[in-house]
């Protein structure tokens, strides 16, 4: 049972915005009570707030159209050289890629409620080689397309897929110098999340499928251990603290029944019991299923987890040093990661005159690998100084004193916090939602339900295949959270807007509802949406009356300062070889974090090369694109149309912003 406020749109596309104050414009609307939408007995007492604004007048998300043919990952019967059928062929290639990704990533398939072809991803070397061959074939097919026979939009999508393939190939090539554990998406976390949240059990047959997948996770963990052992032999390991953290988490898995003599249930056993209880069986039938589950856990999973923990525990004492060849490859891989983010691209310009390459595309540019990291580092430090000056004025700090201690003191005494996290979040989003049409010419129809937190607070995208709306789970008030912990309420209310409206929900829902967009560019969990949009959206919330004091407004600046600091630390760690002391001092000087928190931040960045740089890089690119669009369109520039149309373009690589802008300007 939950209480939710649901945000959805009822106006039709091109319908005038409703200015009648008696009909409140909002994307926060009552949660629909239909049985199809509220399956699994999700019955809610909700607050009804209707919505006004223009929407995409399209089929429900996830429905295949002529531009998205029935999916098959086979490429054998596709002839990319037929110019007359180039448009249809491109659509088939797009659909084949998306289907292939679902087949290769059963976790993603489960999250999107798609059929699962295998229990878990195959981490074997043979599977890696097969993936490389398939991607090479797809790349050849794309390159053989007659781009001149494609519409500008389809040609843009084809180039986006080329870049996605390039990123996946680079990821595989760099596996040998990338630590396979100690990262944000370690396999044990993904397995637990999938089993608990994305493996529904409604029948006894569903439960047996759940048990089969639980049993198969042992093989995934064995393959993972093989990767850990191989990486350790080459000195490819995350920081010791990250290794110790994984040992701690595996110990937590093994605590409780049936893994130990404890009477308290383990986390997995709690999930088993919850699923069995939901079936409402007779006691004997329930006991039979519990016996089956216990056998799987103790006979299959327990020994595998023990061996995995031993391997990771050994790695905490491993002092093998990475070879100079591997270190050089690691540096090359980091440079490639930045390049794939578009970090080495010049400032965007609507002038598309450039030397043509194949199919009339831009010729490949030289990547100044030795200077990109330093340039990004310098730019981020410059922006941090600007933000500190703005915060000093806004919060009336003493300009003659060190900034960080004053920020820590302010956060301890003045940082805004909601009194009632759930109700205050609903009220803020309802109020802001009424003014969304001021900044967005089109709004999504997908409902967003605001409800209390589960074990995973934050935004969860809609699942059209289950007729399931998007959810924003409001966490409980954590008085110990800092602005940089990732708590959606820690930097109130800026982080709230980033995580929901006008941040992640508009970003994902507008793309998912755009039926002219290939699914590989519109699938949450797979599509690489612009990481800087949530930050930019929190700025837009200023214009929508989202902040009620200077203290609340400061959250926008602090959030960006955090992103810029992450970029400094990421480039310093992986591109510039700063010492630990230098990086720690940088963190302490430009953030409210104490020494322990900075250590944790540095360890996370060290284990996730490039990941923490993405937000600030993307924010800069989005601002540059907006500036170019305003300059090129002149007095005809409509910012609200720019934002809606850009978000509806989905996971568009920054390298293609120029091309998108040309198409967009032509359509205005």
Summarize the structure.
The chain is mainly alpha-helical and 668 residues long.
Can you tell me about this structure?
It is globular, with a radius of gyration of 25 Å. By secondary structure, it is mostly helical. It is 52% helix and 3% strand. Helix 1 runs antiparallel to helix 3, helix 7 (240-253) runs antiparallel to helix 9 (283-315) and helix 17 (550-574) packs antiparallel against helix 18. It is built from 22 helices and five strands. It has a five-stranded mixed beta sheet, covered by helices on one side. The two termini are 47 Å apart.
What's the β-strand tally? 5
Number of discrete helical segments: 22
Q: What number is the mean pLDDT?
A: 85
In quaternary terms, these chains amount to: single chain
Give unreliable regions as ranges: 9-70, 347-368, 479-488
Order of the strands making up the biggest sheet: 2-1-3-5-4
What does the radius of gyration come to?
25 Å
How do the strands and helices of this protein lay out in sequence?
Elements: E1 2-7, E2 44-46, H1 86-104, H2 106-111, H3 125-144, H4 152-173, H5 187-197, H6 204-233, H7 240-253, H8 267-279, H9 283-315, H10 324-340, H11 369-394, H12 403-413, H13 421-433, E3 448-452, E4 458-460, E5 470-474, H14 494-499, H15 504-512, H16 533-543, H17 550-574, H18 580-589, H19 595-607, H20 614-633, H21 639-648, H22 657-667
Parallel strand pairs: 1-2, 3-5
Antiparallel strand pairs: 1-3, 4-5
């Amino acid at each position: 049972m939950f209480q939710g406020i649901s945000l959805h749109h009822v106006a039709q596309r091109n319908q005038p915005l409703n200015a009648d104050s008696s009909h409140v414009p909002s994307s926060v609307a009552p949660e629909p009570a239909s049985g199809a939408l509220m399956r699994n007995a999700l019955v809610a007492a909700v607050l009804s707030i209707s919505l006004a604004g223009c929407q995409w007048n399209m089929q429900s998300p996830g429905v295949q159209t002529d531009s998205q043919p029935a999916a098959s990952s086979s490429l054998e019967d596709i002839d990319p050289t037929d110019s007359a059928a180039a448009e249809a062929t491109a659509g088939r290639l797009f659909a084949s890629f998306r289907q292939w990704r679902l087949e290769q990533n059963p976790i993603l398939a489960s999250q999107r409620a798609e059929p699962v072809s295998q229990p878990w991803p195959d981490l074997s070397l043979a599977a890696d080689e097969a993936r490389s061959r398939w991607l090479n074939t797809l790349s050849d097919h794309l390159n053989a397309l007659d781009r001149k026979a494609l519409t500008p939009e389809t040609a843009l999508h084809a180039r986006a897929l080329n870049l996605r393939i390039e990123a996946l190939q680079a990821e595989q090539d760099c596996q040998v110098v990338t630590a396979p554990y100690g990262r944000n998406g370690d396999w044990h976390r993904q397995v637990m999340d999938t089993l608990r949240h994305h493996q529904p059990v409604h029948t006894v047959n569903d439960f047996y499928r759940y048990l089969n997948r639980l049993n198969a996770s042992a093989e995934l963990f064995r393959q993972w251990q093989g990767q850990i052992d191989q990486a350790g032999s080459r000195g490819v390991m995350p920081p010791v603290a990250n290794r110790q953290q994984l040992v701690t988490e595996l110990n937590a898995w093994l605590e409780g029944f049936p893994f130990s003599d404890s009477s308290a249930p383990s986390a997995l056993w709690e999930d088993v019991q919850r699923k069995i209880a939901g079936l409402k069986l007779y006691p004997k039938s329930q006991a039979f299923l519990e016996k089956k589950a216990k056998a799987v856990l103790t006979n299959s999973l327990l020994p595998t987890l023990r061996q995995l923990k031993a391997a990771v525990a050994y790695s905490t004492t491993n002092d093998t040093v990475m070879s100079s060849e591997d270190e050089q490859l690691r540096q090359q891989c980091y440079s490639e990661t930045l390049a794939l983010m578009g970090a080495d691209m010049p400032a965007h310009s609507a002038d598309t005159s450039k030397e043509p390459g194949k199919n009339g595309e831009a010729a490949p540019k030289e990547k100044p690998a030795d200077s990109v990291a330093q340039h990004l580092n310098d730019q981020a430090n410059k922006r941090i100084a600007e933000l500190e000056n703005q915060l000093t004025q806004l919060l009336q700090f003493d300009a003659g004193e060190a900034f960080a201690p004053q920020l820590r003191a302010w956060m301890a005494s003045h940082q805004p916090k909601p009194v009632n996290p759930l109700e205050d979040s609903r009220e803020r989003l309802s109020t802001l939602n009424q003014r969304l049409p001021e900044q967005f010419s089109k709004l999504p129809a997908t409902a967003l339900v605001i409800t209390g937190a589960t074990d995973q607070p934050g935004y969860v995208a809609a699942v059209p295949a289950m007729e399931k709306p998007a959810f924003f789970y409001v966490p409980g008030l954590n008085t110990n959270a800092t602005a940089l912990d990732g708590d959606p309420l820690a930097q109130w209310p800026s982080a709230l807007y980033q995580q929901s409206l006008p941040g992640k929900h508009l970003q994902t829902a507008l793309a998912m509802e755009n039926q002219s967009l290939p699914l590989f560019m519109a699938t949450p969990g797979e599509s690489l949406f612009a990481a800087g949009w949530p930050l930019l959206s929190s700025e837009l919330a200023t214009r929508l009356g989202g902040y009620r004091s200077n203290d609340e407004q400061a959250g926008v600046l602090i959030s960006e300062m955090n992103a810029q600091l992450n970029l400094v630390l990421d480039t310093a760690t992986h591109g510039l070889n700063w010492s630990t002391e230098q990086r720690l001092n940088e963190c302490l000087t430009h953030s409210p974090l104490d020494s322990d928190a900075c250590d944790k931040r540095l360890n996370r960045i060290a284990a996730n090369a490039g990941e923490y740089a993405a937000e600030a890089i993307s924010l800069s690119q989005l601002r540059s694109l907006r500036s170019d669009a305003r300059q090129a369109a002149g007095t005809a520039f409509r910012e609200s149309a720019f934002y809606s149309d850009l978000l509806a373009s989905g996971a568009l690589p920054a390298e293609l912003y120029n091309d998108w802008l040309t198409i967009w300007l032509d359509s205005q």
